[in-house]
Amino acid sequence: MRHLTSVARLAAAATVLTVLAACGGTEPAAAPPAPAQPSEPAPPTEATEAPEPSAAAPVDACALVSKEDAEKLAGTPLDDPLPSGETCWFTGPVSGPVAQVEVHVGDGAKKILDIDRDLKHEFETLSGIGDEAYLEEGMVFVNVSGVWVAIRLVRTDDMAKYDERLTELARTVAGRL
What we know:
Blueprint: H1 2-22, H2 61-64, H3 67-74, E1 82-84, E2 87-91, E3 99-105, H4 107-118, E4 124-125, E5 132-136, E6 139-144, E7 147-155, H5 163-176
Antiparallel strand pairs: 1-2, 2-3, 3-7, 4-5, 5-6, 6-7
């Protein structure tokens, strides 16, 4: 600490001398002496923190729900999956019927659940599936060892008829995690 204070004082003195010389003052004095080196080098500090554990490998959303699983859930043929980050999309062909299955994994899945709770959506707790699981209209959430998965089904008919399929798919996905 004393060393830093001396360096700061020397730097300030050099600045003052430079300003005085620039303003036409007397000739500058000799350059200030170099800062004194400590007599003993400080011992190297050892890391006291444990290394951070390596992050778990990300879960592939398209591997959790196969095209066959998505088609069984939707009750109609779907196009090949489209992966996007921690999400996998299965969409119905343009010829119809309207159908889409979304699979979200990780923080995004948990965020969807949190938003739906804030919006006061109605949930049914599904027991015996993962560490926790919830069903809401057209969507199911499952958590296994801290990994959240959200599966959303988009159809234009009564979503209640898909509740059993959503529950079964949640059970399947929990077994794959």
